[in-house]
Amino acid sequence: MLGDAGKAQEIFQAIMHDAALRAAEGELPNDRLSIFRDARYRCLGASEAGLQAEAIELEEHEIDCSAPVQIAKLEPAQLAVWISAAPDPQRTALALFYLDEFDHEELLALSELKTAELANLIGNGRQEFQAWLNATFPREQAFEEQA
Amino acid sequence: MKMPRLSRRQRMFVQCAPFNEERIRDRAMRAAVFRVHKTDEFANQREFDRAVAALVQTVPIPEGVTAWLSKGIYVAAPKRTWKEALQNPAVLAIGIAVSVIAAIFVMKLIERMNEFPGGTTARRLLTVASSVHSLMLDPVKTDAGALGDYFFMKHRLPHYDVPPEFADLRTLGCRVFDDEEGQRVAQIWLIEKHMQFFIFPAERDLKTGAARHFSGWRYVDQYRWTGVVQERNGVCFMAALRGSEKDLAPYISKPKD
Fold first, then answer.
1. d(CA A136, CA B41)
2. Looking at the complex, does the CB of residue A58 fall below 8 Å from at least one CB of chain B?
């Protein structure tokens, strides 16, 4: 969500600190999603305070069958930066979707989106990411390395 | 394989379907995914998503985070309501089993409460009543109450009397026969409602040989036949007809002298 491990850790520790305080007072939330919701709001708050990504129209490419090979070449930090640069709620949708922690209903609840919106954001996100992959690892290079 | 025609809703579900099958809990989404799961386009989407998720999994988790997480659980254990507990399949199965056992127990209890000494013989005689034809009986046309003397004089059967409740009814015929246990049974055929009377020895205690008494009238039924039985002086009297307890109740509701 933030593309910055240091900031993410600070937010995580703040959430855990609050949760520990609540646990000590016997006021633990019943909802498993509440911690993730809290994390999302804090991340959004933190990212608003920092540098803002420029709003630009991203190119979209059809998903290629060689995409897994291109993705395998990425560093996790590169992916984190790409997702954190996406405008919210697309950022939230992509981050939660690829965490592989939630089912569809939970994704909708956490992202506060409707199915049509979520589908659109994820679908567009895939194609934009594919376009970025194609730009980062042009086809010729990908085929050469495969060979 | 090409993408099949999908509705707008199905296209939406396919777009945002979790790449992990275990996370697809929505039936409509599962159906949409099933329709496209063999297509190249969806296979590409899945491979793409899984590759991204695999990359996410490689994100190193700082030591501090692990240390914090190991400190405890920060979500309260879900409180189970009665409704939720009852919807649990195990609880439901136990509930059904207990209900069935309870129902059988109650049925057995009711059966036990209706049992009386001589009940087995009475049920057997109801089977006889349903199969015997009036032509097999000696024709005797009189009041049923008068047959007590007849049984005593002709067959030496003491106390084979018809109770006052049924004594006024007119008879068609009667007979005396030995049942399966060698007991002497008197059978009377009546005009009214094709009713039949049976008079037979009361059940005896195996040790002492004394008759086992019971008070009042007791109902028995067997194959659509119903009987009402009374014991007096070691002899049981049963009035039987094809019908229910309702048909016999009027006769015994007002005891006569």
1. 22
2. no
Could you say which of A28, A65, A74 has the minimum Cβ distance to residue B74?
Answer: A28
Alpha carbon B226 to chain centroid, angstroms: 20
- Asked if B24's CB is within 8 angstroms of A103's CB, the reply is yes
| A72 touching chain B per CB within 8 A | yes
* Contact partners, residue A3, CB within 8 Å, separation at least 6: A77, A80, A81, A83, A84, A85
Phi (first) and psi of residue B210, to 5 degrees = -80, 150
pLDDT digits 0-9 by tens, B125-151: 999 888 877 667 888 899 999 999 999
Mean pLDDT along residues B55-77: 71
Confidence of residue B225 (pLDDT cuts 50, 70, 90): very high
A126 touches chain B (CB under 8 A): yes
C-alpha separations of A115 from A1, A109, B8, B49, B69 in Å: 21, 10, 11, 18, 32
Domain boundaries, chain A: 1-52, 59-147
pLDDT in tens, B188-224: 999 888 899 999 999 888 888 888 888 889 999 888 8
Q: Write down the mean pLDDT value for chain B.
A: 86
- Which residue among B24, B45, B76 sits closest to A63, beta carbon to beta carbon? B45
Query: Does A29 sit within 8 Å of B18, measured CB to CB?
Result: no
